[in-house]
């Protein structure tokens, strides 16, 4: 025969077990609902994209111009005096760096703007969907980036193919390539171009500065480059974009002064 105290303890244990089981069931239900919701959102997104982009007629391959027209794509020159352009480039380049860091665990190559490049803002409909930086002195692609909602439509390849058609020489793409960049280069037939010593040194300096900032500020892993801190690296990458833009804008001001 159990005592009153033992009965209370057993009742509390049973109540705790029942509560844990209820919480487990609630978590399972929430996970199931979230999975179903994400699937529904994905289906809706695909349906919207299908409605926005006219299907290719049977037996006919869409030209680069028709791809861009179907997606309502146009390009405008980057304006260093436009706050909208500056902030858009900053956010897009940060997204690019963070995506590649999650994919490769390293700093991604290429600058969004520089004194040696011409940068184009890519507009998809009424939205700024990406940017493209070209080195006109070497007829080379420096960097092209599209935000995730505008991928999978052939926009980047169509833009490059149009540029190739008007380029006076065989168009190139600067090494090194990200995995996605390599796929795009292969698809569009660009020639690989080895970066100049100055570009290599500039990239090394940017990476060294990122490591220096992490070693100085990281309280989690002491900024060990062999084990990138998942909390401090993204912060340093965002700062690197701000520094690159600030340096470029300062150079532009000096030119016009």
List the helices and strands and how they pair.
Elements (H helix, E strand, L loop, with lengths): L3 H49 L11 H7 L2 E5 L5 H22 L13 E7 L2 E9 L4 E7 L8 H12 L5 E3 L4 H10 L2 E3 L3 H21 L14 H25 L1
Parallel strand pairs: 4-5, 5-6
Antiparallel strand pairs: 1-2, 2-3, 3-4
Structure explained in plain terms:
The protein is built from seven helices and six strands, in the order H-H-E-H-E-E-E-H-E-H-E-H-H. It has 257 residues and is an alpha/beta fold. Helix 4 links the parallel strand 4 and strand 5. 22% of the residues are buried.
Short description:
The protein has 257 residues and is an alpha/beta fold. The protein contains seven helices and six strands; from the N terminus they run H-H-E-H-E-E-E-H-E-H-E-H-H.
What are the salient characteristics of this protein?
257 residues, alpha/beta, 6-stranded mixed beta sheet, 6 strands
Strand order of the largest sheet: 1-2-3-4-5-6
The count of DSSP E runs of length 2 or more, i.e. the number of strands, is 6
Q: Calculate the mean pLDDT score and round it.
A: 83
Poorly predicted tracts of residues: 49-54
What class would the helix/strand composition place it in?
Answer: alpha/beta
Number of helices: 7
Radius of gyration: 25 Å
Shape: elongated
Helix content: 55-70%
Query: How much strand?
Result: 5-15%
Main sheet characteristics? 6 strands, mixed
Q: SSE order in H/E notation?
A: HHEHEEEHEHEHH
N/C terminus separation: 95 Å
